[in-house]
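Slide 14.
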Amino acid sequence: MTKLCLIGYGKMGRTIHQLAKSKASEVVSIIDPNLPEYASRITKEALQNADVAIDFSHPAAAISNLKTLIELKQNTVVGTTGWHDRLSEITTLAQQARIGFLYGANFSIGMNLFSRLITNAVEVFDSFEDYDLYALEKHHAQKQDSPSGTAIELANLILAASGRKNKVVWDKLERRPEPDEFHFASVRGGSVPGTHTLYFDSPADTIELSHIVRSRATFAHGALMAARWIADKQGVYSFSQMIQEILC
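Slide 15: predicted structure.
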């Protein structure tokens, strides 16, 4: 049984808590400064000897949380987004502390398998100039960042796989896109948990590849798998690296 500390007890934290026992895990501690019934600060005592801390808090708190967890030599899974511009700094600290540290922009197992399909599709369509590509992502109105971390990862995969596209445009376009650009649009509204679609469009037809989330449980299952996987490891891994090791 993997012992967990949840950092942040919002929708994702609660879903992870609900599903933990079904995935051979036990929540022994919850830390959330916005909820007075739980610990407000990350301390050794508040962690309650957890094997792994899972952080799904707020982008503004992510760096501070991660530095504290690393200082306490706590193996960590982080699903909070909006901090990856400082990934190199955090990676160095985690390696120096010799902890297990696993991060991801999207903990959906389906999304990570979808990413592999995207790479293959881009490579196939790249040889056929009639097909152009563009992408769209949709999330609920409470989503803190735009574009999402998942969209950024997908865009990087597309650029790496394509010989015709070398730049992604996120902002509103008031001109024609250049031949080496593709437009990745973001929409925020309602209660949509998350939808990512890549379009291959020609004058004659359109092919769409989509990943549509039906429940936050998909992210919780992935986070719980990640926690069990990293619990007895050292080193820094992305969620996609974990999936790759499982596939091998």
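Speaker note: The mean pLDDT is 95.
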